[in-house]
Write a structure and sequence with these properties.
homodimer; about 150 residues; alpha+beta; Endonuclease I-creI; four-stranded antiparallel β-sheet; 4 strands
């Protein structure tokens, strides 16, 4: 079953990290981790099946006819990446860097530690070829005293 | 490994059947079966890995930046659908109808048998929500004496 889920994730899923502005956060930024699975809404029962297995996250149906099942809670993302690790092939590097980021984030105390995590999120971006990220490590560093 | 491949197929792969005009064929039409896996060309090594495991088919790189790994030879498609059968979830109905079509096709002797297969290909279309098919069973039946 985990091998199946890993194959599904490699085929049409996504692991990604975002640095999100948060006025109410001590450091003004949140590191948001996500594991997401996509499918046509017509076939969204497979997303329900996945949610039943992974026991976290939520399903959204978009107006475009695409649904997604996304897990964002760091603790759950870490758990899911850990159990899928032996089976994932295509996204192995994302998965490993993702686990590193999450573990570092848990231990991060100082602003310097936090910036170190942001730097790794920037590195993650290169693995995913993302073009849309606007909040990078350098944006955070301008706002945080070291 | 088969569970992984089944997950990959469910996530971003495709099983489909086409009725193709063939002037050189006795019945003027061919039933073409396909199992296809898609991926960005940047990540096409996973397609090479799949080809190494399934030992059939070919990989194409399209100008759009998408590559596909496709198996069309009926015997190979039947073999691959059979070994993936216990693991596939989302495309279970396609897979089972696909196997039925391929087995019926092997035994089909008369034009009437062949039209029966074409009818099942039409049924298959409904499972895949395909809108592009133009050669349907009724097109074949107009050209074949019963």
């Amino acid at each position: 079953m985990l091998a199946y889920i890993a194959g599904f994730l490699d085929g049409d899923g996504s692991i990604f990290f975002q640095i999100v502005r948060r006025k109410d956060y001590r450091r003004k930024f949140q590191i948001r981790s996500s594991v997401a699975f996509y499918q046509k809404t017509d076939s969204c029962r497979i997303l329900k099946w996945l949610k039943g297995r992974l026991k976290a996250g939520y399903i959204r149906h978009r107006k475009t006819g695409i649904s997604d099942y996304t897990i964002v809670e760091s603790k759950e993302v870490e758990r899911i990446l850990s159990i899928l690790h032996p089976y994932v092939k295509l996204k192995k590097r994302q998965l490993e860097l993702g686990l590193k980021i999450l573990r570092k984030l848990k231990k991060s105390q100082s602003n310097k530690d936090f910036l170190g995590v942001c730097r790794q999120v920037d590195k993650f971006k290169l693995l995913n070829y993302s073009k849309k990220r606007t909040v990078t490590c350098s944006v955070v560093s301008k706002s945080l005293p070291l």
